[in-house]
Design brief:
heterodimer, A: four-stranded antiparallel sheet, 11 helices, 10 strands, B: alpha+beta, six-stranded antiparallel sheet, five-stranded antiparallel sheet, 15 helices
């Protein structure tokens, strides 16, 4: 980080999170969430810095994916979800009843754990978002598709077979296609839910490289199981355990000098 | 023993055996149909058998078998000439046959009435005077046949098109008069104008009928055919459909004749209460009914499946509905037919008649069996198939696909229409293929909802509104039943049953191939893994 960042050394994660922000894109405040009677998130407060990569780590079931899915309200699709607290993205409360959730999702793109291209051609996959947005002319869409595929570092590989089925691509290519599809609508925030968990090391390296390029244009939030990955790509890291944000800080600090015993245990592999 | 079982070999043999038995049964059935149907059009040689007691029998060999309980063979001869002998077929013991011959002069005459005529053409007469005899008679007859056929076509055209059109106009005028009458208008300029129109039509009708009579009177030529036992038949040339001399024909001639007969079978109208001629109206009716049914059943079944799988909250109720839909496929088809009669024909059709065709009552328009009601009944019968196939397809689409679309800011509706629907298309077509196959072969519910033995007109013709959904129609499945079990001369009609069965099979296969081709195209386009 080139910016001078003050770090509060107190053990209160909320204070730590609040103090390190450069220019926050997403602000989460006192977020709690229940699936039925089961509490999945407990009073999470943090911010996501603009044009930075923020990673959530933690053992399975700690709530990191749930937290991510709160940011584009994908949790709305689950029956019996109840939540408290506030999330603001670019200053707008995204749980405002007057807010159109589809508008929100156009601003907050998402890449899923399992690559999920539509059973359509490569071109149609990327063009889907712009078409939904009502981007009219064929030429406009073509240029958006090319730009997105270039941004996702896929253009060179697929430019000759844009109209072939997307399901014919390799796993890594499919995941990059999903990234291209997500950025085709030019979102402010890009959410990535364990995007490399099903990929081989080479494909993973390409996606990680891509994230480092993309953060110049987008704010990225990534959930990962892989602590090395979090250490490699993220600027900030949050450690969640049993629905609580145990520690949140600059990645280098968190990995080299964790303030919490639990964080230290986790990153040194003593549990999880 | 244990190692043998563990090796899996016996199970492989078991599965292979099951497949083999199924294949043998199906292939056997198709084989029997093929064998009986394909031989029907072949111009078989005519045998002239002289028996030991001096009797001469002339006919085509149809079948040979051992006399039950003895080692002796007997032969079944199709001697035809029903009007002369009383029966088409004769069994002859082979031991009784003293001499066999295949005289080239024997002619087989297809005529418009009484089935085949087999014998020797001895003379051509015109207006009582003999024109030609002996060998010259055949040439004379041949030279007169095209004119006779043309005349028959002309008579048919006058009957069908011209008189048909006049009758159609008359019916319209009659209904308008009746409508006026019902409103209490019995005199006045309107009524007079209609009555004048009616009189003009009647005059045109009579003029046409007179023209017909004139045409018929002009054709007085006859041929004389000598049959066995000195019997003779004098046959008007206009009644001859075709004459051929099988014993004088080479394999090439026979093949040409065969092709012509097959073409006649698929393109011509039936004759002689369906036991001869073609089955074109039945083909047309079957295909059209299947099409109308497809148009109705596909959207309905697909929408229902979408609700069940995409929108309804999955629970006991939806599971119950699903089980009920699946079991609907097990309801006997005649029950659907009865429902079709009660609901579609009497209730819906009856109401339509009262609202829109009151002038024609008590003659029903929609309140009687018709192609629309038959198609609707079959749509009801096949809807479980479409629902189940579509639902399976929807279940096979990964949930992530829908999520991806929603995460891009698409609404649920956009997701359903733009992502889910294209992806499930192949499954929908699979359902449609199964539904079409079922509908094309169904007979029982059709018998009471609109299929008839002989429909006077096709459901599509040149009169407004061109597509007549209220009309009764012919159907290949019913045709098979009718010809096979209801015709006066079952023995003679049997090959026709097999030929019609084969045709129905071919049509079902073609409809399926069309849908399969479409599905494969879609699969290539979308490259889904869904079934």
């Amino acid at each position: 980080m080139t910016e001078a960042v003050r770090i509060d050394t107190s053990l209160n994660p909320r204070a730590a999170a609040a103090s390190i922000m450069e220019s926050p894109m997403v602000e989460i405040e006192g977020l709690s969430l229940w699936y039925g009677a089961k509490q999945a998130l407990a009073d999470v407060t943090m911010s996501v810095a603009k044009h930075r990569v923020t990673a959530y780590i933690g053992p399975s079931g700690c709530g990191k994916s749930t937290l991510l899915r709160c940011l584009n309200r994908m949790n709305d699709l689950v029956d019996g979800v109840r939540m408290a607290g506030h999330i603001r993205i670019g200053g707008t409360d995204i749980y405002d009843p007057a807010l159109d959730v589809t508008e929100l999702r156009k601003r907050v793109g998402m890449v899923f754990q399992k690559s999920n291209p539509f059973p359509k051609s490569i071109f149609e996959n990327v063009a889907y978002g712009p078409r939904i947005l009502g981007l009219g002319s064929r030429a406009d869409i073509e240029s958006v598709v090319e730009r997105s595929l270039r941004a996702a570092a896929l253009w060179e590989e697929v430019q000759d077979r844009l109209h072939d089925s997307a399901l014919g691509l390799s796993g890594g290519q499919q995941q990059r296609l999903c990234i291209a599809r997500a950025i085709a609508v030019e979102p402010d925030v890009l959410l990535m839910d364990e995007p490399c968990s099903a990929l081989d090391p080479i494909a993973t390296a390409r996606i990680e490289e891509l994230m480092l390029e993309l953060k110049n244009a987008y704010t990225i939030v990534i959930v990962t199981h892989n602590m090395q990955q979090a250490a490699r790509v993220s600027d900030y890291t949050g450690f969640l355990l049993l629905g609580e944000l145990v520690e949140f800080g600059i990645t280098r600090e968190l990995f080299t000098n964790p303030r919490h015993k639990k964080t230290e245990d986790y990153i040194t592999g003593r549990f999880g | 023993m244990r190692t043998l079982w563990r090796s899996g070999e016996p199970f492989i043999w078991l599965t292979g055996g099951a497949l083999a038995i199924s294949l043998i049964m199906v292939l056997g059935l198709v084989g029997i149909i093929l064998q009986n149907a394909l031989g029907f059009f072949w111009p078989a040689d005519v045998l002239r058998a002289t028996l030991r007691d001096g009797t001469v029998l002339t006919g085509q060999v149809v079948q040979r078998e051992r006399r039950p309980g003895t080692a002796e063979w007997r032969t079944k001869l199709k001697v035809a000439n029903r009007d002369l002998y009383g029966a088409d077929f004769v069994w002859v013991d082979d031991s009784q046959i003293a001499a066999r011959a295949y005289p080239p002069a024997v002619a087989v005459v297809e005529r418009t009435e009484w089935g085949l005529l087999i014998g020797t053409v001895t003379a051509v007469r015109d207006g009582g005077a003999v024109v030609a005899t002996g060998g010259a008679a055949v040439d004379e007859m041949r030279s007169r046949l095209p004119a006779a056929a043309a005349l028959r076509r002309q008579i048919r055209r006058i009957e069908r098109s011209e008189i048909g059109a006049i009758n159609y106009e008359q019916e319209k005028v009659r209904l308008r008069l009746k409508g006026l009458d019902a409103r209490g208008v019995t005199t006045g300029p309107e009524v007079e104008a209609l009555q004048a129109q009616m009189a003009a039509l009647q005059a045109r009708y009579e003029e046409r009928v007179a023209a017909l009579a004139e045409l018929r009177k002009g054709q007085t030529a006859t041929i004389v055919v000598a049959a066995d036992e000195g019997k003779e038949k004098e046959l008007p040339i206009t009644e001859i459909v075709d004459v051929y001399f099988p014993n004088a024909m080479g394999p090439l001639d026979k093949s040409v004749h065969y092709a012509a007969k097959v073409w006649e079978f698929v393109s011509d109208d039936p004759r002689e209460s369906n036991t001869e001629g073609g089955v074109f109206p039945a083909i047309f009716g079957t295909v059209m009914m299947v099409m109308i049914m497809s148009v109705i059943v596909t959207p309905l079944g697909v929408l229902a499946a979408f609700y069940l799988r995409e929108y309804a909250r999955q629970g006991t109720f939806v599971s119950t509905v699903r089980i009920a839909v699946n079991n609907l496929a097990g309801v006997p088809s005649i029950v659907f037919g009865v429902f079709g009669v009660g609901f579609f024909i009497y209730m819906v059709g009856g109401t339509i008649d009262q609202l829109f065709y009151a002038d024609a009552l008590p003659t029903p328009t929609y309140g009687t069996g018709g192609i629309l009601w038959a198609s609707l009944t079959l749509a009801l019968l096949t809807i479980p198939v479409v629902i189940v196939a579509t639902e399976e397809g929807l279940a096979a689409i990964p949930g992530g696909t829908r999520e991806a679309s929603l995460a891009l800011g698409a609404t649920k509706l956009e997701t359903t229409l733009r992502v889910v629907l294209p992806a499930v298309m192949p499954s929908i077509l699979t359902g449609l293929i199964l539904a079409m196959a079922r509908a094309a072969g169904e007979v029982a519910p059709l018998m009471i909802t609109g299929v008839v033995k002989l429909a006077p007109a096709l459901p599509i013709d040149g009169y407004w509104p061109f597509l007549h959904l209220d009309r009764k129609f012919m159907h290949l499945g019913f045709h098979i039943y009718d010809v096979g079990f209801q015709s006066p001369n079952v023995d003679a009609a049997r090959p026709m049953v097999f030929a019609t069965t084969l045709l129905l099979l071919v049509i079902v296969v073609f409809l399926n191939l069309f849908a399969i081709g479409l599905r494969n195209r879609l699969r290539r386009t979308y490259a889904t893994s869904a079934v």
